Structures are given as structure tokens and as C-alpha cells.
Amino acid sequence: MRNNLKTTLLALAILVPASGAWTVANEQLVLQPQSRLWIDGTSTIRSFTCKAAEVNAVVEVNGANVIPSLLTGEKGVKAVQVTVPAEKMDCGNGKMNDHMRNALKVSDNPTITFSLTNYDVAKNADGISGTINGTLDLGGVKKPISLQATGAPVGDMLHVSGVYELRMTDYGLKPPSLMFGRIKVGETVKVGFDLLLKS
């Protein structure tokens, strides 16, 4: 009985510190409510913007209070997944919303997802900049993408921003058209993101 008790206490002594270390090593940066993601596009009539009403992100980092080290160019980010409910994209016009949701195949693919594969980062005069590589799941099609982003401090937060040029037809998506085809949306759109992350 005493041997069993000693064994149990020894196991707890080993596991508890290990468990605590695991928790610290898997901290997350929290996406702030001010964060934005949008799509800028063109048509035969005028340009347009569709805004994401909701953006969700899980950003796993190495250790707590990692933002200062990230801003020196250290690679402290372990994993990133960003999700956007496609049905909540708002183009500021009910008809355009319907056409855009149809084009994005929202009924079958309600979520747009980006997952980080790897990245390169370097310090510059204003903060950091680099290339983010990952997989974009859009309209039921997954493709690898690379995009440029910059990061800068805002108080105790990290501001990450960039623009990615996306061709809808690469994902099997047909650009919306209105007025019996007289108004056609260009197949290339620009996805902008302006994200605030806090430890």
C-alpha cells in the first residue's frame, strides 16, 4: 500500500510540472473585436466592398507575453487558423449579398478557412514583415496560398495587416452577374485583413 502511495505521489510530482509547462507553451493570442476582413472587387458598373461581419482566429504561440519577441522578428507563432462565416459577408446591398453568397456556394460551404503552414518574418523600421504560407478552403476547394503581411505594435497588441489578390475561378467559383448578365463582377478580388491580436 505504501509503495503504491509513493508511486502515485512520484507520478504526480513528475506530471504536474510537465502539465504546467505544456499550458504555458500553448498560449494563444486573442483576436480583438476591432479586427476586420473585407473583399474589394470590381464590376462593369462600379467597384464594391463586401465586409466580413464575423472573423474568428485561433493563434497558438510559444509562451505567454510573446508579442515583444515577435516584434523582434522571432518566430513565436506555432499555428494559425482563421475562419469566416461566408453567409455573413455583407456587400451593403441585399441583391449583391444574395449573388455573392450564391457565388461562394454558401449553402454547401458555409465557412471560409485559412490554416497556416509556415511563414518567414523579418524586423523592419516599423515593426515586422513577412510571407505567410497556408491553405485556403473556399467554396469547397482547398489550395495553397502565399501572402504578404506586416505587423506593428499598437499598445500591448500586435496589428497584422495585408492584402491578398484572389481569382475566384481558381476555386471553381463563378463571379456574380446581375441584370441578366449586363453587370458582371470581375473574377479577381482583393482580400484585405486588418487584425488586432492580444496576449
Architecture, according to CATH? Answer: Beta Barrel
Structural class: alpha+beta
The total of beta strands comes to 13
Percent of residues in beta strands: over 45%
Q: What's the end-to-end separation, in Å?
A: 46 Å
What would CATH call the homologous superfamily?
Answer: Lipid/polyisoprenoid-binding, YceI-like
Radius of gyration: 22 Å
Order of helices and strands: HEEEEHEEHEEEEEEE
Summarize the amount of helix as a percent range.
Answer: 10-25%
Describe this structure in words.
With 199 residues, the chain is α+β, with helices and mostly antiparallel strands. 19% of the residues lie in helices and 51% in strands. The chain has one domain: Lipocalin. It is built from three helices and 13 strands; from the N terminus they run αββββαββαβββββββ. The strands form two sheets. It has an eight-stranded antiparallel barrel. A hairpin with a 2-residue loop joins β7 (111-124) and β8. The longest helix is centred in the first third of the chain and has 24 residues, at 2-25.
What are the key terms here?
two-stranded antiparallel sheet; 3 helices; Lipocalin; eight-stranded antiparallel β-barrel; 13 strands; 199 residues
Write the layout of secondary structure elements.
Blueprint: H1 2-25, E1 27-31, E2 36-42, E3 47-52, E4 56-61, H2 67-70, E5 77-85, E6 89-90, H3 94-103, E7 111-124, E8 127-138, E9 141-154, E10 157-167, E11 177-178, E12 183-184, E13 188-198
Antiparallel strand pairs: 1-4, 1-13, 2-3, 2-13, 3-6, 4-5, 5-7, 7-8, 8-9, 9-10, 10-13, 11-12
